[in-house]
Amino acid sequence: DQQVKQNSPSLSVQEGRISILNCDYTNSMFDYFLWYKKYPAEGPTFLISISSIKDKNEDGRFTVFLNKSAKHLSLHIVPSQPGDSAVYFCAARWNTGNQFYFGTGTSLTVIP
Amino acid sequence: DVKVTQSSRYLVKRTGEKVFLECVQDMDHENMFWYRQDPGLGLRLIYFSYDVKMKEKGDIPEGYSVSREKKERFSLILESASTNQTSMYLCAMSGLNTEAFFGQGTRLTVV
């Protein structure tokens, strides 16, 4: 059973606009959430994370929002750039656990 | 700079062959993972290890085994490769409270 879900397989956005990628989770024990970016034929690279004690974390153009009551998180990219075109994976873990649970990914295309 | 190194970027093997995928990390971290990535299915955990000689099954362990004899090295073994094991294989490692760091991936084709 998929505990982390990304319901949008793909997203297209114009360069300069905002990209919003969404992620839902089912396990209320998760308390650490991450976003990864993956280019074809490469391994995923860590982008940004958020702990469950926060509801927002920013790093440059990237902001992650966490809504614990809705079990939902989102990644905002502003402004979007063509180099942001990649597959984005959402992941979650609980504090005492070793394992990361990944979503199925959203393929973002930023159109110049 | 954190490094997770997978032994091969691309591999082509025949059905029935025994295949070894090697992964080495340079951070002395406890946890190491093997995932496979397939279109529409995301990253699925095959096995992980939280210490030397320790292993736990992930979501899809069938047809695979692993070995961790040294802390820095985690090997994935396909006992008898089949065409449905054609995939991108990703090794990762993490510390106790860190994010996961991934290797560059191995694209395995079984013919």
What is the secondary structure topology, with strand pairs?
The complex is a heterodimer of chains A (112) and B (111).
Chain A: E1 4-5, E2 10-14, E3 19-25, E4 32-38, E5 45-51, E6 56-59, E7 62-67, E8 72-77, E9 86-93, E10 101-102, E11 106-111
Parallel strand pairs in A: 2-11
Antiparallel strand pairs in A: 1-3, 3-8, 4-5, 4-9, 6-7, 7-8, 9-10, 9-11
Chain B: E1 4-6, E2 10-13, E3 19-25, E4 31-38, E5 42-49, E6 56-57, E7 64-70, E8 73-78, E9 87-94, E10 101-102, E11 106-110
Parallel strand pairs in B: 2-11
Antiparallel strand pairs in B: 1-3, 3-8, 4-5, 4-9, 5-6, 7-8, 9-10, 9-11
Q: Quick recap of the structure?
A:
The complex is a heterodimer of chains A (112) and B (111). Chain A is an all-beta fold. Chain A is 0% helix and 54% strand.
Tell me about the largest β-sheet of chain A.
6 strands, mixed
Gross morphology of chain B: globular
- CATH C-level category of chain A: Mainly Beta
In this structure, how is the largest beta sheet of chain B organized? 7 strands, mixed
How many distinct domains of chain B? Answer: 1
